[in-house]
Amino acid sequence: MDLSIAIVSWNTRELLDDCLRSVFENANDIELEVIVVDNASSDGSAEMVREKYPQVKVIENDENVGFAGANNQAYEVSSGRHFMILNPDTKVLSPLAPIVQFLDSNADVGAAGCKCVNPDMSIQRNWYDYYPSALWEMLPHRVRELGQSLIFRRDTDSLFDTKWVGGQCMTVKREVLESVGGMDPDYFMYSEETDWCFRIRRAGWRVCHFPKIVILHYGGQSTKLAEVRMLVELQRSKYRFIARNLSVEKARMFKAAIWVKTLLQRAGLRLVGNAREGCARYAALTELQKSIGGW
To answer: Which of 72, 191, 271, 276 has the most neighbouring CB atoms within 10 Å?
Structure first.
């Protein structure tokens, strides 16, 4: 088996259908298996897969075990020489055979991302040459975007090494998985791929951006359904990554930065009154600030 593809879904039935169709349309010249792990969806996602794609293995969870835990479930029943994780809110736009050929012919590469585009076909960043930090987190969003475009500029049509790649689409060799293990299930959502790539690089393998695989990513379709919880998980996961892999002192600085930033954001929202968007955001920020003490 050349390639196993794991797709973890939570209430993304229509998008999942499109994703699966695009996978099989681009699977020529390789031996492929697809495993869908349904994290307790209520929209009939698992039933749709069984009906329309009988060749797909389906794991149906009674509860949401998170992104990392579900991908690990898929890995346990997979048999491919390489293991790809793919978000359900994506469409594969290119043949899949090149990633198999690339990993087979580059012994020092442990994992590879892809070229990712938005629905308007603009480039979506899914590679990162830096890790979370207190200083980076305190910068305004627009400043961080500018910094990414200027400091970390890359030619997305070229192959290059990077610190970590996004979990929208990431392929890992089985021998690497057997050496470093799967995703850490302590990350319910967010930063699991950062941690995974960190461990892969620490073990001596390269992590690459591989542009011959192209996907369209709609982005955040599952997480939009649980905005408050996901905001908390995002920052808590960054904190966990820093504490486990960088240093306790850096983690403390990050925690303090998030507390101050959240305080300032809440104060700003109070100034603009009770706009609908402001109220939802304020509730999420309040929950985040309450959670910080328990990290």
So the answer is: 191
